[in-house]
Amino acid sequence: MTTTTIFRYGLSRLGLLSLTALVCSVRLVAAQATPEQAQLILHLLDYVAVDYPQCVQDGTVLDQSEYDEQVEFSQQVRALLHQLPAQAAQSDLLSQAEQLVTLIQGRRPGPEVAALGHQLYWHIIRTYNVEIAPKHPPDLTTAAVLYQGQCAACHGLQGQGDGPAGANLDPAPSNFHDRQRMDQRSIYGFYSTMTLGVEGTGMASFRTLSEDERWALAFYVSTLASSTPDLTRGAEQWQSGVAQTWFPDLASVATATANEIHATHGDDGVRVLAYLRSQPHVVVSSSESPLARSARLLRESLATYRGGQQQAAQDLAASAYLDGFELVEASLDVVDKRLRMAVEAEMMRYRAMIKKQEPTAAVEGQHHRIQELLTEATTLLDKTRLPAGAAFLSAFLILLREGLEAVLVLAAILALLIKSGRRDALPYVHTGWVAALVLGGCTWLVASYVIALSGSTREVTEGATALIAAVILLYVGFWMHSKAYADRWRTFLQGQLRDALSARTKWALALVSFLAVYREAFETVLFYQALWLQAAPVYAPVLGGLCVAAVALTGLGWLILRGTVHLPLGPFFGATSILLVLLAVIFVGKGIAALQEAGTLPVHPVSFPGIPTLGVYPNLLGLLLQAGLILIIASVFIYTYHGQRTG
């Protein structure tokens, strides 16, 4: 075996022995795939795809030791895949791995082996949701300092593999200026090497560095061979807009090799890749418009469905709606509500077709219809800029729509406490809704900059909190209704109410105030984030609409509070209890709809008018639950009424 670069020989024979030891240790955590476990398989496939074509040509082995290595690598891939958690697509993965072993043992042509290796590589990424890019653009200035402290001793100050500590290493440290080798490597490949290390060489694992630091170093070393003229030309191409469809996000930059890009986009493509590696902040997923994100995810969904991965295609289709189109619904409603409803209906039909595993041709036709509608919507919204009036109205409607239910709940709770003379409990309620706003903002920050929180996860969170809030609203509503007909309500107010509130009811009211606000807070921030991008660079209409909606909601809450507090106690309890249980019915409908959008619950569309504001959606499960809940509420209210009258 030659001693060129440690990235080329990521796993030597000694490394394979260590790999076997790692595999044994992985078995101890048997049924649960770790990111490192999948990353190790990808690491192996990367080397097979790159190195096999160089050691076998025209059926002849040019380097026996390298060829033996490729055989062992492919067998290790097959063995490791058997240990990953069961998935619907796992049998296909194992079949591809077996085919890869057969091709290598049969000394098939290099391009054929490399193509299958790449196919299996991406199949694993999609099936096990492997993270292949940093969560946010890395800081290369910090990485340069980090390189001098962590890497220069072996790789040299300029990355030419001539550091003093690497003089006696075999194989020698990588020369990051070796264009022939660097053009075959991706940033993700560098990141994997830093994470896993290379057993049998001087390249140790850098797990002690944070994930962000490893990504920053991976980007940094990928830039060392780039020349200033190439970077300048790449910047010009990128800023002209010609190349922006080639690299829509950080993942497309992190996984690309210069050789792959050259094959599809020529020398200019390679220069753009070099520029983006040196300036990753210019490519961030948040700059992608929601409609463009929907279109991209739908294309990925169709490609995945064609590959026989029905569940992965279903997840991508759901994400195309939740992480893309849903975020511009309010804006589109202002300019063309018909189009918004058409896109929503067609995307739901597309998800249903995938779930039913309809023929690929039919799914392709539906995909084409949605893409045409998205193009129409994009043109209508002028891609990123909304007229001032539409931006104002969109901002106003977003907050009014998302905040109305929370204001109704809070007004009812505050009126109850004031009416019952329990102002000492008001701080609990105020703490609940303030905490909800703070946590909603924190959730958005974490999802944007720390972890990747999908739209599906967001909808599950909203759906679960809506159902929990509905249960608590029913409890409080029934409790209040039971007091509306008490003959001796003054004695109750002076004694039992005080005791009841000091126990569990006060905490229930505080909790429901939190849930009522939190269930919408995070999503509201996302809607405004999307609207902010569409309205750029004129933001005053968005801020104006937000402020006017906030004033309107505050005024509405004050009117409800003022009106109900001045009601006699009996009618007050009766009216407020009805309001709370009706809100519970609305929350149940919205909670079920959110879980259906996330794919957690099945969808059975029916011919029924939808009224989203009231939580009424044309799906069988939600309507049946709401109808059953209304019957239960009516029965309880009638029973309580007659019990109080005859008692």
As residue ranges, the low-confidence spans are 1-33, 486-497
The domain count comes to: 4
Strand content: under 5%
State the helical fraction.
over 70%
Q: What is the 3D shape?
A: elongated
Distance between the termini: 95 Å
The total of helices stands at 25
Instruction: Give the biggest sheet.
Output: 2 strands, antiparallel
Kindly name the structural category.
mainly alpha
**Rounded average pLDDT:** 77
Radius of gyration: 30 Å
Strand order of the largest sheet: 1-2
In short:
The protein is mainly alpha-helical and 647 residues long. Helix content is 71%, strand content 1%.
Please give a structural write-up.
By secondary structure, the protein is mainly alpha-helical. It folds into four domains: 31-128, no CATH class; 140-285, no CATH class; 310-380; 388-582. It contains 25 helices and two strands. It has a two-stranded antiparallel ribbon. The chain is elongated and about 95 Å long. Mean pLDDT is 77; it is low at 1-33 and 486-497.
What attributes does this structure have?
647 residues; mainly alpha; 4 domains; two-stranded antiparallel sheet; 25 helices
Q: What's the topology here?
A:
Elements: H1 13-27, H2 35-55, E1 56-57, E2 60-61, H3 64-83, H4 90-105, H5 110-128, H6 140-150, H7 152-155, H8 179-182, H9 187-196, H10 211-222, H11 228-239, H12 250-254, H13 258-278, H14 290-306, H15 310-322, H16 329-355, H17 360-380, H18 388-419, H19 426-449, H20 455-484, H21 489-494, H22 496-535, H23 540-565, H24 569-597, H25 620-646
Antiparallel strand pairs: 1-2
